Amino acid sequence: MTKPKLISLFSGYGGLDMGVARALGGADTVVTSDLEPGPVAIEAFHTPGIPNLGDITAVDKSTLPEADILVGGSPCQSMSYAGRRAGMHEGTRSGLWSEQCDAINAVRPRLAVWENVQAATGASASSRSDIVRHGRRVAALRAAGLCACDNPDLDYPQGFRPPTGEGAVRADKALLDWARPRGLDVSGLECRRCGCPVYGPGPVAWTDRLGGRDTGPVIRALGRVLADLSLIGYDAVWRGIEAADVGAPHHRFRLFVVAWPQTPPDRPAETDLFRELDALPAPRPAGSPWAVFDRDADVWRSGETRLDGTADVFDGVWPTDGVMVSGRVWTAPAWPAVLPRLSGTPARHGDTDPRHRVSGSPLIPTPAARDAKGLNQRRNQENLPGAMELGTRLRSAPATMFLPTPHASDGAKGPSYSGHRVNLSGAILGQAGLLPTPTASDGMAERMRTGVWHAGSRRAMNLGIAGRIVTAGEGKARDPESYGFRVDWGRFTPAVRRWETILGRPAPDPTQATRRLRVLAGRLPACLRDGAWCARRIQATLPHGVDWPCRRRVIDRWAAVGAPGLIDPVWRSIASRDPDDPVGCTRLPARSVLDLWFRAAHTRVTVANLSPRLAEWMMGLPAGWVTDPAIWRNVPGNHRMLQLRALGNGVCPPQAERAVRDALDLRRKLSR
Description:
By secondary structure, the protein is α+β, with helices and mostly antiparallel strands.
């Protein structure tokens, strides 16, 4: 069967492509485009024969191949709540939407999909009205004898440091805000470029220099995308959906704009689905539109009239679901329930609080690139490490929790904590306790060692020697191979188990041995990686109570057969193991063995950090899609950080699939 051709822009690891293809019954990607080393390596491994265009700004859009599908999620950092909120303007990363729009106009696909963050509903964007207003500002400033430069060149006073970076406050306004509380007079400052004073009498800066006139955005990022699609002859449905809505154990709210041409292209459709969509008439939503696009002014108008008789400009935050037909927009009808809440209450997509869509309790943060750095100085709870650690401390927390959504910064900042929010690394490193399976004899062994029983503590699980001897009775030692570590997901267990059922595979180990621990172990003498030798060495450090003869015989018998279960066999050849082949937390040596290693090496290192395989599983990707060691063999850099960054910037394919299916179903419904 012939599959439609798909062009992928800002491809990442291909999650959006994967989800859209599933929703349409399959598609063949003919072109990808990405610059980051992680996504480039992943694309080259999975689609070796498909060209990567690289920098989309350098591509002549007229040379793009013919395709019926074009998808892309232009960079979101300038709009994201986690970024500087610089908006969708020329010069910002999020402003690259214009490149995708040009590609859509050149290719004229039967279906175009744009994916981005929820903040696109409120982030500012540029319109022709902004350009007109800017011209009025310049004229007014010049008429007042003030500097009209976009960026006045000032001789800054000592102690002032102008802000830098995308979305930073303008230096002239920041200087005024800095000078006022210090009682400094900056009204005499002149621009070194034009020689005009920057601040007039009663000094105010930038747009405030005009008494606050003509300030603020007139169009939002989502409005800009829909307006551009309307200008090139496309209608659209946009859909907001969380990853948790399709069963994932974390939040990741994303907007999906699914657009189609008002007039189908002349070329024949390759599939029955597209032939059906081509035959549909234009959607006919009921009621009056709540906003209409004014092509001449390049703004959205609400249809209301101001007191001065002029048409009102809609410049507010957009809804997360809606329909656009011929430049007119309606809010979308209520979406049907996707999954029941874990508590059994059905969830609908009209809920005000997104945390209540699947569960009555907060979801764990999405994996982010910064998680790889571990705990940060602020110790906030906005990333996964913080969520995991906080989960073990909140005794009164609701029983049903979800994992934090993967973020691009998971690989850079590591665990973080802030108020009630946590990130992926923090959640994993704290909540996922690496505890052995409890047994009735655990308490006996602990009492024999310390005389104190600490119910539910890690000490209680650390049995007489290295957490593996489970009984003190002579000749009654349980098979050590049946006794090992397991991951205790605690309050996140219901969400994790549901996703395991949906994906059909268990959750991987949440953490993995750090590179430093692997290097340290590889440099130790071979005897320190031998279970029998370590068992006898640790035996000498145990206290000699009245039961010592019995305990010694048990340990001697265990050591005589190699002390199975004390040190995983993987550590015997750790020096030759592929560094990209992780050693999961359930295969880490017991704490007593690690202490022995640290004493021998005269140093201590971090034992475990967040595993990219967990983030990969959380995003609903096939096992190894991002973490397969073969992908990274010839790629320079820190592979774990590259993996976490790619996963943090990516799309959950089941989420994209559901959004596209819902959008097409709504189009059919409104076209009848």
